[in-house]
């Protein structure tokens, strides 16, 4: 059993991305977010990702369909069905090879509700391992300036799940920032000014941290620009189809750095936006973008 074998299995089960993180990048985490709280004997963290279809963002970009394009294929079905099936199948294969393997849904620890500890010294259930952090530690993704996960394959377009295993696998190296140019288009592209470039925090695996702007999630919670909540995901606001992320996708595709390329540009018309009350901001694109769609 080696990393290459595990990666080939993951790809055969539909994963678009797969990386291995060393347990050393999780040791410092609090018990509430530490994989060892769930599986004390684990040795490696396998992270798999599946792409958000670019086409699933089309209805959101046009402002004409949010649910049956992105809401299903890009969000809940992708996490609950397609990615979960890949995670389940890989876990089965590991178990068939006499390895213990613990599949974890790709949560982020944002306002998830906790129960009562079952004993003194134990963290309250549910311990949540942040899948975005794991994806960085596994060498799959970098944190962007506006706190999105970027991969060289798909830019902003993927979701992650995690498997803890007692297999001792050769780990990948966490990414440094190379895709995000800190162009700040996402800052101007947010119609509600929720991204604060003046307040930076450090995120990522130790030794590979990068500066991330504060994103005011209380504002994002009321964002009507493609942001969404999903059932069973706490108060987490999914931003991957929101104006910030679509603006970033446009910038990344223009940069030519992404591997999954298309004949036509993603942004074909001036983008729309809505304010805090859901009303159309008619001069949004004039304020935020020049005529060619680039950030002013
Ligand atoms: S829009 Fe620019 S600054 Fe913002 S995340 Fe994307 S590349 Fe980074
Ligand atoms: S989700 Fe909405 S409010 Fe939050 S940063 Fe993105 S565009 Fe702005």
Please, could you describe this protein's structure?
A hairpin with a 7-residue loop joins strand 9 and strand 10. This protein has helices at 3-12, 35-38, 58-62, 67-96, 131-137, 185-189, 217-220, 243-255, 284-288, and strands at 17-22, 44-51, 101-104, 142-143, 149-150, 158-165, 195-203, 210-215, 228-229, 237-238. The longest helix is centred in the first third of the chain and has 30 residues, at 67-96. The protein has 296 residues and is an alpha+beta fold. It has two domains: 3-165, no CATH class; 185-285, no CATH class. It is globular, with a radius of gyration of 19 Å. Helix content is 28%, strand content 17%. The chain has nine helices and ten strands. Residues 291-296 have low confidence and may be disordered. The N and C termini lie far apart (51 Å). The strands form four sheets. The protein has a four-stranded antiparallel β-sheet with strand order 1-2-6-3, sandwiched between helices. The structure holds iron/sulfur cluster (SF4) (2 copies). One iron/sulfur cluster binds at residues 144-146, 180-186, 247-248, 251. One iron/sulfur cluster is lined by residues 190, 192, 194-195, 215, 219-220, 223, 225, 227, 239, 242-244.
